[in-house]
Design goal:
This protein is of the alpha/beta class and 332 residues long. Helix content is 28%, strand content 25%. The protein has an eight-stranded mixed sheet, with helices on both faces. Strands 2, 3, 5, 6 and 7 form a five-stranded antiparallel sheet that branches. Helix 3 packs across helix 10 and helix 7 runs parallel beside helix 8.
Length: 332
């Protein structure tokens, strides 16, 4: 698919999935037609002389990025929105939603926690799926509604979905042992005291939330049976320059290579246009070399919630579906 963009008179640069947005915006004088895969979902915006990001006045496609109103998109003829994710946008959760408040001694403040239990399973011991960026996965990702659809088709076993919203996302998610202690020592016992749990746990997150989820599961040494990491920030390391997400020393990858292996199954997905894809591939290879189950799905997309919403159904099937040697889904 060839895409020809025409810069407005006020634009100085093109920012897009192909430039990692702020890392290397393309001067409009160097603009040329873009050759993208036919199955691409591609986001971009124009940078004005005053430094403001603005939408393309010539692009009439609906804006799908929930956080960046200026992000325009181009969709290739081979791109297909995940049918479960799309249907979930027009449905309400069929089960029970508990909206809880936890007084954290570790953080010294009150925090919100949402717990979703599928309809008909309120008194059944179930595994927990712990989502970082809980508000986004609950509201934008519609993870409960996607689970409802997969359950109705018998493709997954039921689970409690636990959504924890951050308050200061980067400081909390970026190699922060106190926040990990909050999740392990406070959130999980707090939830387990209110819903029936069978002891199994899955860690799930996107970007920095994926890195946090991987660290959480690794440190638990068998406390989690699976991790779902979407566009994981595995390039990152504690010694990175603040504000520069493009250069890091892959601290978690090194931990996997040098540390003991844990019995965790890993599901990764990442956009083909992302600067994080090479580090995700290196992590998958490192885990596979240690004998772990590690799968990677790559879509022709960038680092955004449209891409991550596409992978929710596949992640749930990996974490909760039938597999060789595992228990089959439980039907209601």
């Amino acid at each position: 698919m060839r895409v020809t963009l025409t810069a407005p008179d006020w634009a100085t640069h093109l920012m897009s999935d192909l430039t990692d947005w702020q890392r290397a915006p393309l001067p409009v004088g160097d603009l040329h037609p873009l050759d993208l895969p036919d199955d691409a979902y591609f986001e971009y915006a124009w940078l004005a002389a005053d430094g403001e990001r603005r939408e393309d006045p010539l692009n009439t496609n609906p804006r799908l990025n929930p956080w960046w109103t200026y992000a325009c998109n181009v969709v290739g003829p081979g791109w297909r929105f995940d049918p479960d994710a799309e249907a979930a946008l027009h449905a309400a959760p069929a089960g029970r939603v508990l909206r809880l408040e936890l007084d954290s001694h570790v953080l010294g403040q009150s925090r919100h926690v949402l717990v979703y239990t599928p309809a008909g399973y309120g008194d059944r011991p179930l595994p927990l799926v712990l989502f970082q960026d809980g508000k986004a996965y609950f509201g934008w990702g519609r993870a409960p509604q996607v689970l409802d659809r997969l359950l109705a088709r018998g493709e997954v076993a039921p689970a409690h979905l636990v959504f924890v919203p951050p308050r200061e996302r980067t400081p909390e998610y970026f190699f922060n042992p106190a926040y990990r202690a909050f999740l392990m020592d406070e959130v999980l016992p707090f939830v387990a005291a209110r819903v029936a749990c069978d002891g199994r746990k899955v860690a799930w997150g996107a970007s920095l939330g994926a890195l946090l989820s991987a660290q959480l599961a690794w440190e638990a040494a068998g406390g989690f049976e699976a991790v779902v990491a979407q566009s994981g920030a595995f390039l990152f390391s504690p010694d990175m320059t603040p504000g520069d997400p493009f250069h890091g020393n892959e601290a978690f990858v090194n931990m996997v290579v040098k540390g003991p292996q844990h019995d965790i199954r890993w599901f990764f997905d990442c956009g083909a246009f992302e600067w994080l894809l090479p580090s995700n591939r290196r992590l998958v290879a490192a885990l596979a070399a240690r004998g772990a189950t590690a799968e990677l799905a790559v879509r022709s997309a960038g680092h955004n919630w449209v891409n991550w919403r596409q992978g929710i159904a596949a992640g749930l099937v990996f974490a909760l579906g039938a597999r060789p040697g595992g228990r089959p889904p439980t039907k209601s």
